[in-house]
Amino acid sequence: MAKQAPQSDPAQDAPRVGAPQHAAAGLPAVGHSLRMASEQMSPKRVLATLRKVNQPDGFDCPGCAWPEPGKTHTAEFCENGAKAVAEEATERRITPEFFAAHPVAELAERSGYWLGQQGRLTTPMLLDEGATHYTPVSWDEAFALVAEELNALDTPDGAAFYTSGRTSNEAAFLYQLFARRLGTNNLPDCSNMCHESSGSALTETLGVGKGSVSLKDLYQADLIIVAGQNPGTNHPRMLSALERAKRAGAKVVSVNPLPEAGLERFKNPQNARGLAGVGTKLTDLFLQIRLGGDLALFRALNRILLERDAVDHAFVAEHCHGFEEFRADAAATDREAVLAATGLPWSQIEELAELVLGSQKIIVCWAMGLTQHKHAVPTIREVVNFLLLRGNVGRPGAGVCPVRGHSNVQGDRTMGIFERPTAAFLDALGKEFSFEPPREHGLDSVDTIRAMRDGRVKVFFAMGGNFVAATPDTLATEAAIRSTRLTVHVSTKLNRSHVVTGARALILPTLGRTDRDWTAAGAQFVTVEDSMGMVHSSRGGLRPPADDLLSEVRIVARLARAVLGPQDGLPWEEFGDSYDTVRDRISRVVPGFDDFNAKVRRPGGFALPHGPRDSRTFPTATGKANFSVNPLTAPEVPEGRLLLQTLRSHDQYNTTIYGLDDRYRGITGGRRVVLVNPADAAELGLAEGGYVDLVSEWTDGVERRAPHFKVVHYPVARGGAAAYYPETNVLVPLDSTADVSNTPTSKAVVIRFEPDSAGV
Ligand SMILES: Nc1nc2c(c(=O)[nH]1)N[C@H]1C(S)=C(S)[C@@H](COP(=O)(O)OP(=O)(O)OC[C@H]3O[C@@H](n4cnc5c(=O)[nH]c(N)nc54)[C@H](O)[C@@H]3O)O[C@H]1N2
Ligand SMILES: Nc1nc2c(c(=O)[nH]1)N[C@H]1C(S)=C(S)[C@@H](COP(=O)(O)OP(=O)(O)OC[C@H]3O[C@@H](n4cnc5c(=O)[nH]c(N)nc54)[C@H](O)[C@@H]3O)O[C@H]1N2
Ligand SMILES: [Mo]
After folding, report:
1. Residues within 6 Å of ligand 2 by CB
2. Which residues form the Molybdopterin dinucleotide-binding domain (predicted)?
């Protein structure tokens, strides 16, 4: 039986503040995940579902992209994976009656948390022009309507096709094929807001925009630096890997403006010691860096390594390009500028340098703390310089480790979800399907918003995700979306993007990872690629929320047939019924996927080739690994202002809010909090527990305000503040993006504080 949805709403949230914790997981995490799951499902379904997470015969956890260890533990999931699974496998349902009872105007007043709690979507729904309510439509009507709007465009570039990173390889491949046969490269995706900066920096310097390490490398490393990442919440299974690395003698350094509990100590819930005992201390050295100080930190490290001549000269001579220019510039790194940018004492930087000098094998892991800054790309290039100096790329126990977010965000890119595809990819695609794909680059996420605003994009189609809530500058973005002709969302759950729409809107419900997927050709499975380039299968086992739900693969296949017409000539029906036929095509288009259908049926799947990792071959413009020169910059913050980073609480998955607690940071019952260093709070007159408005400052003079945030005195690095996304996306200016990657600067928003305008 479906249960009643809880009614609490963050609009009336009342955060309570306790002490931050100093260890992650352990028994409370197990209890927490089971409680969350049982709010959504019967006990039998909880067991049946959680038993299949990340098992060879089961489904890939829709939580994060962290890889599965070779021999899977019987419970290879974590507290937050369990929440992600429960969110999807919930027994609550949204039926046409729900939409009849709630006008869209009313739903637009509801919190994202409330929308998500209503259950799984079951029926295709249409919001027609001028209508107040969504009404049911048949699948055929829905596809015909999309075809009508797309075919009415002057140019295929008047449409944009967004992807969120849960989409399977098979669906992603067909989706980009469809967009390109239609004639556009407008394929924005969540990567644009996520690891695009990593992809840009790594492609330029190493030739492959992905991480170069496997789990085995982590276990063999001497030193692991975790910079700008909160794995205790966002990649909990990474803590088991760090624990294992530590047992084998590795040192762990964390670089973060916040002391994150998960990096301090880990109580592994999968063994008795972790459940009951004190757990394992993870961080050996914690550098509490200022927001945006990482480029300065890595430049300082590089200067010290050069001064000590701690350079792998043989590696540099044989494999690298640009060393002399880099050396001249890095050696001149100004110490005072480093101290100002990082806020760290020089002695701590030297302490880290000593650890580096004592280590043969070094890995640097990072996530959004590095990628969402104006100077994110130069920062990551400098990390690469640091690793190249001592030959830490392309040998066991060493390398770059950008830790991906969505469970298949890396695979989607591999399948061609990219607004700037390479010529080689388009050549292969064109050859396989006998057509000439469009060559002109398309729009990324931020440029899609601009194009909608300017009337150049009229149809917005989303394969998953929650575009209006996930993107910056909420008010500008919502206005842009509302000016379009048609918005279409292929979704599992209701969210904000379904109630802020174009003139017409469609919701196309779909199967999730946990659902059984049967077609005319029998049982189907899909494949995904994890953060370390391992490809494996995923097969759901639950009865789908409705009998006529279509998988993403079938939705794309039927859409393509409806839009492109019978004259298109590709066997879309066959693609939709038999995913093996899609994989056969992928095997001939995407490098590394030869013999795909056979290889993916082996337990554990297979690893994609990676030149730098496998053979120290670097497919860059110079044919070598490129050193780069990255002038020292850091965010500038005027007097009386702080730099705000927007981050995740422990009870959310991006725009999906599971609950109102952030347990490790000691915050419960609400999300509208702003964490401020007590010394900064004293200077700015921000009383603990008081309420304020956050107002962001940007060169365009537009006022961006997020009202009613409770001030929490918290040990964040001086000069910075932290608050949760997506509530704070209203503060991130659309034009404030990273150089090169165009990623919104979600970790660097200049704000001032004003009296609480909600006046509560
Ligand atoms: N449970 C759960 N899991 C998730 C997600 C989720 O929302 N919930 N989201 C998924 C997705 S899509 C992604 S991309 C990942 C995100 O994973 P993370 O990147 O860990 O997520 P954030 O909460 O954005 O955390 C950023 C971390 O970087 C630190 N930081 C911020 N600015 C700086 C800086 O300038 N320098 C340094 N050194 N550190 C900084 C913050 O203090 C924080 O610890 O997680 C994925 N997994
Ligand atoms: N201020 C600020 N903004 C940020 C960030 C930040 O740190 N700060 N982080 C950025 C990052 S890293 C990312 S990745 C983006 C995330 O941006 P998105 O990927 O667009 O957002 P999500 O919240 O992950 O999308 C959740 C929705 O996906 C749908 N969904 C879930 N599972 C499935 C599925 O299997 N199939 C389909 N079709 N739909 C499904 C559900 O309807 C759910 O409501 O946000 C970015 N925005
Ligand atoms: Mo992400």
Report:
1. 62, 164-166, 190, 193-194, 368, 405-406, 463-467, 470, 490-493, 495, 510, 512-513, 552, 646, 654-656, 725, 728-729, 732, 746
2. 642-749
